[in-house]
Amino acid sequence: MVQFLGTLRPSPSLSSFATYKRQVYSPITAPRNGFLSFRRMFKAYIQSSSAATDAGLGLPSEQSEVIFIGTGTSEGIPRVSCLTNPLKTCEVCLKAVEPGNKNRRLNTSIVVRHPTSSGSSNILIDAGKFFYHSALRWFPAYGIRTLDAVIITHSHADAIGGLDDLRDWTNNVQSSIPIYVPERDFEVMKKTHYYLVDTSVVQPGAAVSELQFNIIHEDPFSVSDLKFTPLPVWHGHGYRSFGYRFGNVCYISDVSEIPEETYPLLRDCELLIMDALRPDRSSATHFALPRALEEVRKIRPKRTLFTGMMHLMDHEKVNDYLMKLKETEGLDAQLSYDGLRVPTAL
Q1: What structural domains and CATH numbers belong to the chain?
Q2: Where does the UniProt annotation place the signal sequence (predicted)?
Q3: 227: which of 27, 66, 245, 339 lies 20 to 30 Å off by Cα?
Q4: What is the pTM of this model?
Q5: Residues 6 or more apart from 276 whose CB is under 8 A from it?
């Protein structure tokens, strides 16, 4: 059941990747003939073109799809500290600065695009600290203009830090945006985003985001005629986060433990999108790749895409490893990447 609150406003108005080989990079100086610069520019062009092709730019408008607008940790990839390290020891972050490189990752978030009788519905799951940058990169590229709703998984900054940026939509595109949020996380928003919850405190003339808050519990709810079923998981000791099932897609972005009562909700999952922070050991709040793979073997989806990766997860190296698992175990699992589009039947 969804409890509609509206806005409080005056009327109107693995372990094989645990230790990557450290490489010391010295500054690159292009030779006088400029050939190296040309080669690097050409390589970047090929990477960008390949990424656009892989992303499925030609999907028909009537096709449901999941668009990954962010697949990284709270701090994002590359890390500034890695780029400013004079020893240049972080291979993944150095790769991530290259145009089109799939190691470049912003806060974990997806858009669920779902055809309706009146057109196409765009449902955003989480709007974190880097939401503006993700939207700037992918919304124009994929023709996403309106937002029919934002669904929140939890109230950490990488999931709600971009709510203020929704003002661009409610000031210039649409009158308001519905927000679907668990009750405990709404209580957090009353403190972190008090001026969005109670707009009576806003100075006259200031144009903040116009948001309609809807409290959700563990019961299924519908957005734009699409059913969402909350998937309660633990995101650290005593901290509850929600994943969501829509159609046969199961999305669990932040998880350290899956309660037994949640597994029945994952039956017959065709596409599992699962948290996998690092290649070796799980943290107190996130699965690492080995634990995530254990869950994949237990849940048995048709296909798995991992998300929420930190800078120890090299896209190409980890995917090469996962391809070997497909050959030996039949597991269809890969890392996702920012900008990936996946057609779905919803």
Answers
A1: 2-13+58-344 (3.60.15.10)
A2: none
A3: 339
A4: 0.85
A5: 286, 287, 288, 289, 292, 306, 307, 308, 309, 313, 335
